[in-house]
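Annex B, item 7. Sequence and structure tokens for protein A, then protein B.
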Amino acid sequence: MTVPKNVNSVQIIGIREDTTSTITGNGVYNITGNELMVNLVVTAEDGTVRVIRINVIRSKSTDASIKNVKVEGYSLTYVEGNIYSVTIPNEVNSVEIKNVSETGAIVDNIGIKSGLKVGNNDYEVTVTSQDGSNVIKYIIRVIRLADSDNTLKTPYQTSWGTSTRMIGAIIMTHGDDHGLVLPPMIAPFKVIIIPIGDVSEKLDELKNSLKENAITFKVDETNKTPGFKFAEAEVKGYPIRIELGKRDLENNHVTLVRRDTLEKIVVPFDEIVPKVKELLVIIQKDMFNRAKQRRDSMIYDAKNYDELKTLATTKDGGFIKINWCGKESCENKIKDDFGIKSRCLIEDEKVTGPCTVCGNDAVTRLYIGRQY
């Protein structure tokens, strides 16, 4: 006979059809495992003995819940999904993950976990139900505290916006009316080669030289006109364009074009790679300096609110440096009056006077500017 998995005991009663016979074995039996075997002995009046064997089977559990898992000495706290955590003091560097199943579930990856680092320590455990029908993976996150007072601290952090906004900043800072202008250090391809006419032999030689010197490049071998290829290369922003023309090669020279200045430079074929290396360094430096000079030329200083008003209403873009008392009310006034927000504290400059907004004592210097 089969009983539900939550049944822990059964009562067995033998019913006699012959009132002259006797039955032994009746009673209440505890099911300690998943199966119970009970023998009922029936003795007839003439002494004949018959043994009736009763097999009691308890159905297997389908439970694969987190309650089958325990971190010794700590209570699991739900985080999200299948993640549960415990928090331990800094002086503790090991815990024991245990199987505490009362239903026969199997839990893997249990035992003592030592050498815990400060912060999150994630351990994946798999709980398999007794009947094998449910298999669930859990993450046990052991958080070892870092501070001496054994409390969680919120770290100081910031986002540098290394995403699409940085791509936008590159385009806005360096781009021109022809298209992208990519700094050599971040350009995936430093050089675009545009062959003009049948120059396959010299093209292969140039490609091998660039590869040997770890200079990334692309070759435009489409059937478009040279002029179209030049314009397309400028749109895409390759730092250097190499115009590999048959007529120029007959005179043993080629033309290099800087994307940042569109300057054309004629060099002997054998000097292409050294010149490209030199130009990549120069272009990177020149682009940085031009961008820095433009930025610095658009940083203004307002000593009082009248100067701030003039700068905020007449200058197109840029940053304004002010003295600030640290009060949110002054920030809000600037935002309400001019649509300008605080951008960054200037920690390496000393306060030069009272707060530009309210006139009270200033505590720091501050960059303000329009957010785009």
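Protein B:
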Amino acid sequence: MSKCTTKTYTIKFQLDISKEQESLLTKRFQYWNNIYNHLMSFVKKQIELLTNNPDFVKAKMRFNELHKTEKNSSKKSEEYKHLKNKINNFYKWYWLREYDLQIYIKKYKNKYKKHIESNMVKNIASEVWCSVQQYLYGNWKKLRYKPIHERSSLTGKTNRSWFVYKDEKIVYKWMIINMKMSNKDVYHRDLIKNNRRVKYCQLYRVKRSWWASKRRWKYYVILYIEGIPPKKPRLWQWKVWIDWWLKTLWYYSEHWDIWLVTLKNMNIYKDKIAELQTIINESEKKKWHYLRHKVNTLHRKQTALRKQYTNTIANNIVWLWDEFIGEKMEYEEMKTEGATKKTMAKIIQDVWPSSLITTINQKLWYYDMKIQTVWKYSFRASQYNHDEDWYVPKNLATRYIPIKRKRYQRDLYSAFLLLNANDNLKHVDRDLCLKRWGEFKEKHNEYIKILKNDGNEYPSSYGLSDITL
């Protein structure tokens, strides 16, 4: 059966599961885990036999030597092709192919045939094969078994067997599981209606907090639906120029509007995790699993909070504007370079600005767009002065630009320069800067007055105390 190549999108819903249904599903996860570990033990034995074969070892060593020299060449030597075929034959003789694993596991699956169907077993074989590939061809040094409670998802092959979606419910044999859907969420209801074909379902579970009730898991279903989701309506279709820094994003639109987005510190469980980690290192074995579960729960909540926050900001930004132009930021380099690298690394770890930019780009891709970036080595928005037509290097601590004996906010001025980039986005168009300077100056002074008089305290990185109006 050939793989489906049509476009697919996904939706996740929480499931309303009773205690009886949860206990049955927990057993299914355990059966899946048993099959996976049984197949992994077979693979380990076969690999051990293969590596003890001297002919395979010689062929593999010689092939690796040739691969280093011929990796980038379009035409491979005859010896290279011969050794590659020889190694593939070894894998075939020792049952180390995906198809061979699917054949082998069919005998073992009869033990659980009432609970797990054949397509699910094929998925297990494919999952094991992915691990084997990483070990044989990739950087993995060891194959490992899965612990009992590590299994977090089960995926079907089609929507006709095992977990089946039908009329806003999930059907599994005699079980009918309701999906939690809000009546106000019209958009998500439209996504699964209008004769859209559900390809298959994936059951997904997450551990509850340690202080929660005796029910240990939250269950979700991910629907894989054929087609492209309908586009959400957008408010404006304007161009916007962004100057982003570690904690701030300054926006300047073509209609002379200015916005400031301050990123919050979402690493709120950092101190709790560090405290628990020290307790774990000094605790007895009896308490170790309980404390480890606490730390895992905090990590999960931390990830969920950060994802929700970045998605909320990205949705607001994409909903408002149409075309984005900004300067590419190398956040990984900031962590390792410069005198303030420790401070930079701490801020990046707390705020994660790169994840926000990635999320915005993902949402723009849906509208066939992306953030356009200027050529930073020739543009140098943080150094250029349009009044003198010259590049003046500045320290990171200097948060203003001096122009005609007045000081202007540095990041906002950089956004103004991005507005006046030439067509190839490599240099600033000075004539446009001089033409639009009067309008920018008025909007700049208005916005800085608002920030100074709104009664809020802003960090020194804004440079509000240094700006003269």
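Comment on protein B: Residues 69 and 76 are 10 Å apart (CA to CA).
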